[in-house]
Design a protein that fits this description.
By secondary structure, this protein is an alpha/beta fold. It has seven helices and eight strands. It has an eight-stranded parallel beta sheet with strand order 1-8-7-6-5-4-3-2. Helix 5 packs parallel to helix 6 and helix 6 crosses helix 7. The protein binds D-xylitol-5-phosphate and zinc ion. D-xylitol-5-phosphate binds next to strand 2.
Length: about 230
C-alpha cells in the first residue's frame, strides 16, 4: 500500500490545528514533521512544543524527521511529545546503530534519512534495526525545490538491496513529490510519499480535493505498472 504523509512544514502555522484535522479527515496516512536545527540544514522549522500542540487532533502517526546534528541527544524530547516514528540522518550521528536501537527500544518505528549524495551502503549493517528509509529527493532544508533525477536510481538500488537482504523496510521519498515524480518513485519501489507544496499544499485546491486527486493518481499509476508487468 502507498502511504501519503503531508509535510507540515508547508502548512500555514496560523491554522495548523485546523489543517491537521482537515488532512486527517481527508484521509492521509501519517504526518511528516520536519525538525531543523539551522546547523545540519540551513533552516529552522517546528520544535517539540508545536508538535505537542497538534498531537491531540489526530490519531494518525507522527513521523518526525530530525534534520539535526547529533539526533541521539534529542530523542527523548520528541518521544515525549508524541512521535510515533523518528528518522535520523546517517550523516548526523557517530552512532547510527545505537540511535536506531534506542528509537526502537522506546517502541517507535526507526528510520534512517539519507542526503542525496549519501550512498545506500551506509545502511548495510543497520538494516536489522530499520523500519523505514527516507530518501531525500531534494537537498534537505526547504520546501519548493526540484527533484534530483539520480534519486530515481537510488530508490531502485535501495529497493533491490532491501529485497536481496530479505528485509521488509518501507522506502519514504521526501522532496518535490508531485505528479511529475510520483510515477518514477512508485515504479522503483517507494511506498511512503512525503507530500508538500508539490502535491498537497496548493492554494488553488482544497486539502480534500488534493488528497482525493493524489489517491486516484497513485491508484492509476499502480494499475499501469501492473498491466505493464503483465506484458
Ligand atoms: C525538504 C522537506 C520536504 C519538503 C516537501 O527539506 O523535508 O518535506 O517540504 O515539500 P515540497 O513538495 O515543497 O518539496
Ligand atoms: Zn522531511
Amino acid at each position: 500500500m502507498t502511504l501519503i504523509g503531508p509535510s507540515l512544514m508547508c502548512a500555514d502555522m496560523g491554522v495548523l490545528k485546523e489543517t491537521v484535522i482537515r488532512l486527517d479527515q481527508a484521509g492521509v496516512d501519517f504526518f511528516h514533521l520536519d525538525v531543523m536545527d539551522g546547523s545540519f540544514v540551513p533552516n529552522f522549522t517546528m520544535g517539540p512544543d508545536l508538535i505537542k500542540s497538534i498531537k491531540p487532533y489526530t490519531n494518525k502517526p507522527f513521523d518526525v524527521h530530525l534534520m539535526v546534528k547529533n539526533p541521539e541527544i534529542h530523542l527523548d524530547t520528541f518521544i515525549d511529545v508524541g512521535a510515533d516514528m523518528i528518522s535520523v540522518h546517517a550523516e548526523a550521528t557517530e552512532h547510527l546503530q545505537r540511535t536506531l536501537q534506542t528509537i526502537r527500544n522506546n517502541g517507535l518505528k526507526a528510520g534512517v534519512a539519507l542526503n542525496p549524495s549519501s550512498p545506500i551502503e551506509e545502511l548495510k549493517y543497520v538494516l536489522d534495526v530499520v523500519d523505514y528509509v527516507t530518501v531525500m529527493t531534494v537537498n534537505p532544508g526547504f520546501a519548493g525545490q526540484k527533484f534530483i533525477p539520480l534519486m530515481y536510481k537510488k530508490v531502485k538500488d535501495l529497493k533491490r538491496m532491501i529485497d536481496s537482504e530479505g528485509y521488509n523496510i518501507d522506502i519514504q521519498v521526501d522532496g518535490n513529490i508531485g505528479y511529475e515524480t510520483i510515477p518514477g518513485v512508485l515504479e522503483n519501489g517507494a511506498n511512503m510519499l512525503v507530500c508538500g507544496t508539490s502535491s498537497l499544499f496548493k492554494p488553488e485546491i482544497t486539502f480534500e480535493e488534493a488528497v482525493t486527486k493524489l489517491k486516484e493518481f497513485i491508484t492509476s499509476q499502480k494499475e499501469n505498472q501492473f498491466e505493464a508487468n503483465l506484458k
